[in-house]
Design goal:
It contains seven helices and twelve strands. By secondary structure, the chain is an alpha+beta fold. The chain has a single domain, classed as Chalcone isomerase.
């Protein structure tokens, strides 16, 4: 298949955009635009996130992804959740006509069901993390979310999220992974600024946002802060 073309796999309504010529080494992302922007610091890890991305999406919440190993919680990455304010406000105001005093389950569900414009920027806080571990972590998490959203078991779909990122690549402290739901329900994944995959699937986009805003979020405080930003839009 040629570069940047869409293909349908099997009988699933899923299209995958192949990114050609993925290099073995992932290059560092240019920080010029971000270094000029004010930041918010995630206090548990000291990682800073620009309050706005170069495309105008604004930071709504920050948090930490932890993983239990032999009963001990380890910090894997810090994350910032960004959103397009105009798209977010349009989604909320399309169904809610009155000002909300506090965030509701319905409001979270509205964002999950309309995830276009959401970006999650992840910054590793441990070193020498193999890409295979990152891939498995995303696959497992999104796989559970897909089942909770009624999509059943779909291993073939979830393992495409990291695309052609090589398993032997190791992410160091400070390495970045950025996942964005683009128009058309295209989930774009970048590693250190380099696009490694684009997967067109409404279900995967919804499941990815569900990880952070669903019933059992990766960081409850981050979900609550995102919810406060929804209320403030009224």
């Amino acid at each position: 298949m040629s570069s940047n073309t869409l293909s349908t796999t099997g009988n699933q309504d899923i299209k995958e955009i192949k990114i050609a010529n993925i290099e073995n080494e992932i290059h560092e992302e240019s920080q010029c635009a971000e270094t000029e922007m004010p930041v918010e610091v995630e206090k548990k890890t000291g990682v800073s996130f620009p309050i706005k991305l170069h495309d105008g999406r604004e930071l709504k919440a920050i948090g930490v992804r932890r993983k239990n190993v032999f009963g001990f919680p380890f910090k894997i990455y810090s994350f910032g959740i960004y959103a397009d304010n105009q798209k977010l406000a349009a989604v909320l105001k399309s169904k809610l006509v009155e000002r909300q005093a506090k965030v509701t389950k319905e409001m979270y569900e509205m964002v999950i069901d309309n995830p276009v414009g959401i970006t999650v920027k992840m910054v590793m806080v441990i070193s020498n993390v193999p890409m295979s571990m990152v891939r498995k972590n995303l696959n497992d998490g999104i796989g559970v979310a897909i089942r909770k959203l009624g999509g059943g078991q779909n291993n073939e779909l979830t393992k495409r999220i990291m695309g052609e990122a090589k398993d032997e690549i190791k992410l160091t402290h400070g390495s970045k992974i950025e996942v964005t739901c683009l128009p058309g329900y295209v989930l774009e994944t970048k590693a250190n600024g380099k696009v490694v995959n684009k997967l067109e699937s409404e279900l995967v986009c919804r499941a990815f946002v569900y990880l952070y805003l669903g019933e059992d979020p990766l960081d409850k405080e981050a979900k609550d802060k995102f919810g406060m930003s929804l209320v403030s839009m009224f």
